[in-house]
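Researcher: Here's a chain I'd like modeled. Treat it as a single chain, no partners, no ligands.
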Amino acid sequence: MNENIDVSNVVLNTKRLKLRFWKVSDLDDFYEYAKVDGVGEMAGWPHHENRQSTEYILREFINGKNCFAVEYDGKVIGSLGIEKYNEELFEEFSKLKGREIGYVLSKDYWGRGLMPEAVNAVLGYLFNVLGLDFVLCSHFDSNTQSQRVQEKCGFEHYKRVENITLGNGAHVDGAWFSLLKRDDFKKIQKFQLKF
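Model: Modeled as a single isolated chain. Structure tokens:
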């Protein structure tokens, strides 16, 4: 089941990053990376055509209280959201507490290991502070970079799925990865055997 999440007062620090709640003053940094062709598309949303699009999404982040701004050297370079997962698609998790994560990083910072660092910090928070039992994450088949982040952070392939993109509603093949508390892994396996 989806656990309630509110990160509006949470700050996570890593060796190089600060993960914190979004502010209205982050608009310029957000727009700078969100307008770049190919950044959002990797995650299933179209790059932002104008500042108004970015401002709308920024307000959604703030109102939703479930998304971290990823800050590097005082500049916001990405986001990491803790989203509700589709409970109908994952009925086998109905007795466990969990969420889905999604992330995006400025193209200027790809290849530096920053997103695995951010994801690991959030996983530590979700498992050790909030007590979640599992975390899900997905990627399109074409997004091997996202797949590598998930693998580096200990996620394991869970199932194949057809995703629908936010931009144009296209159907794109992809995979779901999961990360479970080891104590709960046997419960999940037993439940799956009933299907």
